[in-house]
Amino acid sequence: MTAGLALDVLLAVALPLVGLAAVLRRDLVQSVMLLFSLGVLLAIAWARLGAPDIAMVEAALGAGVTGVLFLSALARVGPDDAAPRAASVRVALAALAAAAVAPVALAVEALPRAFEGLGREVLARVPETGATHPVTSVLLDFRGYDTLLEIAVLLLAVLGAWAARGGAPSPRPPAPGPILTAAVRLLLPLMVVVAGVLLWVGSSAPGGAFQAGTVLGTTLVLATLSGGVALPRVPPWVVRSMLALGFAVFLAVAGATAASGRALLRYPGAHAAGLLLAIEAALTISIAVVVWALFERDPEERRAEGEAGGREGEAA
Amino acid sequence: MTSAHLFAFSGVALLGAGLLGVLAHRHLVRRVVGLNLAGSGVFLVIVALARRSDPPDPVPHALVLTGLVVGLSATALALALAVRLHRETGAARVPEEDGP
To answer: Does residue A244 lie within any of the structural domains?
Structure first.
């Protein structure tokens, strides 16, 4: 137990320090590298906090795709060459940030050290849902409406990113290196299998659409970046259909439950497990393509430029 | 000090570091780094406070799970806008209001 506590203390101290270093570094590339490290530390912290579902997504996003997005933006925007501010200004800004979070620290301090939360009520009613893993029950049943709207937010973000990138010059295809290409070839099938397992176990154990989708999306990003592995080429409308699939299936189920006289997204008991799996499978595909699309350009535009259509991998 | 509260304070400190990043820099990519850190800090506070019961409360876990993916999409959109601004104006920074 003491070893566990020592690890907790180490993590709790390291997290804000690494974050502060990412903010204060002069070189933005170093900042982004520190952001990668922070993602790894956070993934361990989530595991220590008993949140394996979050740890898996963090490992794929925080320690992976997020940094890739920053690096690809940096390559286009260039370094921060502004002169550093006067020391007095920096001290004042640090004091301002500290003053802003001090009330939050006081509020956290005032909270009771043990608190039941909603855990017991969730556990009592999990058998009514189509899943046995509490987080999945919350995600797709108790708070299904939230998740439905969050998928819509993801679609809007992709549309926004594609619109902002409109008319941008084509990025140079990376030169494939032998080691990276070989590693990606080995990892690609393995990660597709991992995503499939995560999707399947999601109803009864940590895992599910968000974990499977982010792992699969990260795989697509890795394959695209490595340049040495050709993803199957599919027409732009297929990419768009895959983006919309999760939201469409989720919305159709919501509409069907509402039309059958039940509350919105209140699944009929006998079909709940099947409906949840269908929604999760559709969400997995859409989340994977969203993660990939967030750093890509609109495939329609690429085709219009005479490139050989959008590149896309088949999900699972 | 329980581990749950330890991580909650760690999250508050991370939020502070992120806010400093947003306040201290004009370069837009740096500001997005700050926002990203602040978001991670908030997630850490939420999940740490869910650890106060055993087993942990699954409701905040589900919120943060979707929050991570939404946070990624917000980061990607913000960076795409910063790159576009750079393409239009030649600089990706917040304009100076009253000279340097």
So the answer is: yes
